[in-house]
Structure formats: structure tokens, C-alpha cells
Design goal:
The complex is a heterodimer. Chain A has helices spanning about 5-30, 35-55, 60-80, 85-110, 115-120, 145-160, 165-170, 175-180, 185-205, 205-225, 230-255, 255-275, 280-305, 315, 320-325, 330-340, 355-369; strands at about 130-135, 140, 345-350, 350-355. By secondary structure, chain A is mainly alpha-helical. Chain A folds into 2 domains: about 5-280, ABC transporter involved in vitamin B12 uptake, BtuC, CATH 1.10.3470; about 285-369, Orthogonal Bundle (Arc Repressor Mutant, subunit A). Chain A has a two-stranded antiparallel ribbon with strand order 1-2. A two-stranded antiparallel sheet of chain A has the order 3-4. In chain A, β3 and β4 (about 350-355) form a beta hairpin. The longest helix of chain A has 27 residues, at about 280-305. The radius of gyration of chain A is 30 Å and the shape is elongated. The mean pLDDT of chain A is about 90. Chain B folds into 2 domains: about 25-185, Nitrogenase molybdenum iron protein domain (Rossmann fold); about 190-310, Rossmann fold, CATH 3.40.50.1980. Chain B has helices spanning about 1-15, 40-50, 70-80, 95-105, 110-115, 140-155, 160-185, 205-210, 230-240, 255-265, 295-310; strands at about 30-35, 55, 85, 110, 195-200, 215-220, 245-250, 275-280. In chain B, α2 (about 40-50) packs across α6 (about 140-155) and α9 crosses α10 (about 255-265). The longest helix of chain B is centred in the middle third of the chain and has 26 residues, at about 160-185. Mean pLDDT of chain B is about 85; it is low at about 15-20. The chains are: A mainly alpha, B alpha/beta. Chains A and B meet through α1, α4, α5, β2 and α6 of A and α1, α3 and α4 of B.
Amino acid sequence: MTGFQLEIQLTAIIVAAACALPGTFLVLRRMAMMSDAISHAVLPGIVVAFFLTGNLSSPLLIVGGTATGLLTVVLVEAMRRTRLVREDAAIGLVFPALFSIGVILIARFAGDVHLDIDAVLLGELAFVPFDRWVVAGVDLGPVGLYATGVVGAITGLFIALFYKELKLATFDAALCAMLGFMPTMLHYALMGLVSATAVVAFDAVGAILVIALMVGPPAAAYLLTDHLHRMIGLSIGLGATAAVAGYWVAHVLDASIAGSMASIIGLEFALVFAFAPHQGLFSSWHRRRLQRWEFARKMLVIHLLQHEGRPEAVRECRVDHLQDHLQWEREFAGHLIRQSELQGLITREGVYLHLTAKGRSIAQEAMVS
Amino acid sequence: MRNALWSLVLLLLVSACGRAASDGVPLSERRVRVVATTSIVADLVHNVGGERVEVEALMGPGVDPHLFKASAGDVAVMAAADAIVYNGLHLEGKMGDLFEQMDSRGRTTIPLAELAVPDTLLRESALFQGNYDPHIWFDVQLWIRAARTLAGELAGLDSTHADSYQLRAQAYVEELLDAEAYVYAHISRIAPPARVLVTSHDAFGYFGRAFGFEVYGLQGLSTAVEAGTADVQALAELVASRRIPAMFVESSISPRGIEAVREAVRARGFDVRIGGTLFGDALGGPESPASTYTGMVRHNADVLVNALADGVRS
């Protein structure tokens, strides 16, 4: 593995962690598409900064982009607080408006300049090792690694310091306000960090990877755990795994690195969605099936208990009668009877069914509850 | 987890110091490894560098340089290169800034348009001074300057073979002059009032200036901004009122916009043809007549003459 390969993967891991931290809260607050919104909403800031500086390479363009990123966050939050629109609608209303202002400004005043988000802001993970930080002739490593590392560390510190408050503000904003923790201020601070993380990471590694990392791993982690701290840890782990696996997929296929990483994130989510222990598709299906059996078994023992020792028992407690009375398919009924026999709930004598002591107590319990 | 990450960072910093770009074999004993950004720049490097140079283009045929995405292999190619040759003037977007930084750290990066063409010959933005149209290759005279500049740069890099670069450049300039003469000879068949070039985006400004065409692009320089309905209507009005017989699409840009203009022209009771595909920001594939720069220049001239010259079919 060459130094460049190591640097690209390391940067991707750092970006994965820096995105997973705020991404977890975005997913929990149903604002996952905030990063996508910011990736578009930076345009007017870049355009206005260009009008002021007249220079496409000026760092002020990134500052302008960050400013409109923050503006997006403030506007979305202001709209959401009116309670007239939901989070997702507020995001969808704010960023197209900002983006189109940028497009109109370019079309109207700068049609003869090569001005767009790709040309000014969006970086490319593949080129991270070529943009190096050199101090007094000493090569300290890629700039992108430091930039994303710093913004990730700040977010990490913020979350560590205000962990309890953030948790409360996320899950019960009303209680949080009552306890005097100012959920709105926390929210603005967190969203400000989302905006800063997004812009810095866009600059270093491009838009798609950042959006994928902010949404994919936290959404997958959400299906795996109900604990906030575990969700954050899992998000970082899933993101970092996708970063490394995606790099090597890109290496083998000679494809776009960011694209491969984003695809692996999609794959991770699909696997979790299908096979998560409690909330996955497969386990929900399995649970529903178990519940159906459980319910049928109770029906059977209750039915047998009600007619036990009565004259009609000869008619009611027959195997073939269950199909009519409880409207069970023949196969299902047969399977259920065999299972219940095995579990010691009933015994079978030819076509007649009898409750065991265990079956009787389960039936009585089920009727009481 | 975080601690592990930071120790990895430290490890990396130690290992990053003292890494060299090439593998230590002196340039006089091997070929010069050059990375070019667009296929058009790669073609120039190939012609000026000849046998001495191994050139690899980051953007293959038909790729819009505004929308280029790098692959994992590009990193290794760039890391091993002795020189990176690019157009500059923001044609490559953010990559251009990257190359400038690499240059300030001692890697050889050559911004052709910026070195070869003085500002006075560049088309400047009307409102924003210091911002220029990067598509200089459409003016063959400017591309001749680029060829000579490149020869000088490569000669400086690989000084033992300096003469061969100058000789090859001189020979290639002759070829370029032939191609230019071909364009002049052919477009003379287009009556001056019909010398109007309507295309997808504003890439042909230098062509228009050099060969006396009025140029109208549906989109601006940046391909990110979609053409508006007003742009479509204004262009359609122009085409219909001046009875311009043909418009042109570009190889690396979707023809949808130009087709919309065509519909709008028809609504005004005039029919305009799509005159053919011009090669703009990228060369054609190896089978295409525009697989080289001179081939592209001739092909574009042929397409224009076929569509715009009255009653003449070359």
C-alpha cells in the first residue's frame, strides 16, 4: 500500500467519523436531507463572494458558501418552528429557493465566467493526497485530512460536552426546555456544525460521499440499536468500513473512489435493512410468523378447554372439526396439532384431542389476560 | 477508536516525509511521464513530445471537463508523473487550483493557456476583469503558441533532449498551419452573412474571432446553468429572423437544449436543421475523424461548410 492510498483511506475514515457524528442527530430529527440541501444552497454564497472578489480561486468563495449553508439552517429551523410545515418540507422549500437565486445570478451577470459549485467548492477524494500542507519546507500531509479532522474533532467535542442535553433535546424538546436547557440554541449550534462539516467535507471529498456518509450509516445504525451512544459508534464504524471497502473496490475496478464508497454504504444499509436482529425485514417477518403460531396455539387450547368434559366434546374436539370451526386450512391445523403435541399441550387419540395439564393452565392463563 | 485514528495520522505524517514522486531513474535514461487533463491537451503533448514522452489523459474522448470525476487509477498515474499539463484558466475547475499548489511545492505543472497566451489575446469576461474564456484551442494561432510553450517547458524538464522538442514542435506547427489553411479555404465557401455559429454552449468564441463567425451559445460558459426559456426564445427569434439554415450540437453536451430551440424556431414558421456534431471540449474516439486535434479542426470546418454553404457540398 502506497502513502497516497493510505492517505486517501485515512481521510475517508476521518470524513466518515466527522459526518456520522452530526448525521446521527440529523437522522433522529428527521432532517437527514439537510446535507443535500446545503450542497445546493452554497451556490448563492459562492456567487455573491465571486461578485465581490472577482476571483474564482479566492478562499472567500468557500466562506460565502458556508454563510449560505448557515442561512439554510436558520431558515429551515425558522420555518419548522412555525409548525405550519414539517422538517422535510421546510428543507425542500428553502434550498431550491437559495440554489435558484445562485443560478439566476450566474445566468444574469456571469454567463461568461466558469462559475459553478463543481468549479469552486466540490473536491475530489482521489486528489486529497496532492493538496498538501507544507510548513517551512516540511510536508505535514494532506490539507483535506486536517480540515476534516479539525471539524470532526470540534463536533465530537461539542457532542461530548452536551451529550445529555442533546439527547434530551432530540427525544423530548419540551422537557428539555422545561429543564432550562434551551433546545433551540442547542439545535442551532448542532445545525451550524452540520453546515460547517458539510462545506469543509464537500471541499475535501465532494458532495455525494458526504451526503451518503451523513445519512447512510446513521440510518443503518438506527435499525441496529435503541441507544444513542451505540448508534453514534455504529455509524462511525459502518462509515469507516464502507470507506475502506469502497476504496479497494474502486482500486480493483479503477472506478471513482467516492462513488464506490457511496455504493458500499448503500449495500451496508440494504443488508442491515434486511437482516437487522430486531427491526430488519427478515426478523419482522419471522416475528409476525411466530405471533401467528402463538395466537393459533392459544385458540386451540382455549377451544379444547371450553368443550372439555361436555357432551359436545365428541363433536367439537375432533381434528377435522377444527378446520370448520376455527376456519384453519387442513395443512395448518395438522401442523399446529403436531407442534402442540410436541410441546406437551395436548394429546391425541385417533381423531380426538385432549388437553394436558400444561395445556389447560396455558388456556386458563390466556383467557384471564 | 478515535485514539487509534489519531495514532494512524501521526504514523502517516512520519511516513509521508521524504517520499519522492519518481522512482529514481534519471530522466535522460527513460521516457518523460506526462499526465494531461483533456484529450485535446494530451494530443498536443503527444505531438510535441513524440517518442520521448509517455502521455496519459485523465479525461477520455467525449468527457465534459466540467463534469470530470477521477478514478482510483488516476491517483497513481498523477503520483508517478514527471509533469502535469493542463489547459488552465479554470477549464479544469478546482483541479486547476490543485495543480497550482502542486507547482508551488516543486512538482512540474504546466498551465498551457495561461503560459502561452498573453492576457491581451484572451477573451475577457465583460463584467469580471481577470476572468477569461479558457477554450483557446479553437483559435489555431493560439494553439500554435501553446505548442511552442509546451516545447520550451518540456525542453526545460528534459534538457538532454531539448533540441528534439523544439524540432518536433516546429514540425507540428507546420501541420497546424495546414489545418488552419484548410479551414480558411473551406469556410470561404460560406457567404459572410451566413457565417453564424449557433451551438449548445459558449465554447466557440475564439473560433468566431479567428475565422469571422458570429457565435451564439445557448448556455453560458458554465454547463451547470441550464438554458432558460428566455434564452431559448431569444435564440429562436434570432435564428428565425435571420433565416440561419443550421445549428450545431457538441459531442460532450446533451443535444436537448438545441432541439428545444429548433422546436421554437419551427413555431415561428421557419425550419432550421441540426447541422451536425461539432467537437468542442473533447476529441472523438480513435475511430472518429476528430480523434486528433488537427482532425477535429478539419472535421468542424467540414461540418460547418456542409450545413451553412449554399448549394455547395464538399
